[in-house]
Give the backbone structure.
Amino acid sequence: MPTDWGRVAGWYDQLVGGEGSEFHRQVVLPGVMKLLGEVRGRAVLDVACGQGVLCRLLQQGGAEVTGIDAAGELIDAARQRSDVGIRYEVGDARNLDSLPMAAFDAAACVLAIQNIHPIQGVFDTVARRLKAGGRFVIVMMHPCFRGAKETSWGWDEANKVQYRRVDRYLIPRKNPIISNPGVKDGTYTWTFHKPIEDYVKAYRKAGMLIDAIEEWASHKVSDSGPRAPAENTARKEIPMFMAMRGIKVELAGGLSPS
């Protein structure tokens, strides 16, 4: 199923910009760089790179960077904002046949894996492009607490507590995302909800062992209003993002686990 964001590239580019949204800058990108580890002098692949926000940050850290995305419009925006030292390609994240095998020390897929279906192809093709011991970091909206339409904030008036309601967690589903709120042009993209176990299985089937799972809270702070203390507590208690890191492993004889 084609799920690229080419049709809404203009809107999405305005939303994210050249350096990422506020959430990118304050939470996501610092977390990704920490999980990737030292990148200087290493080959790093950004899968579903969009307009190249992470690619440019990786290059600043001294990495040799390749970015790939299915939306040619976003790759054009990435090239316009980047220098020629970053290699960009238009391609499907589930099929990276244009890239050499076992050529990358690390890879990342940031806030895009939930917009791709099915996902196993992403993990398989990335694993084949990683060197032994290579890292693959994914970041997504937290599947437990940030599912489109099936999670929401609630207010317990008696106890003055803000809580998160979660429905249909174990049921895989797809939901449309209105890509340009306020403009009724019928344009939308898809998000695909899967429980955490599906991502764990995808890593395992691709021959990668998960060595890190992190849950990141919002950096936002409410500073006014009667519910501000409860809102701030809820933000700290209920993560907004989830990150996972898998390591490509090989058994004796060059075989990968299955």
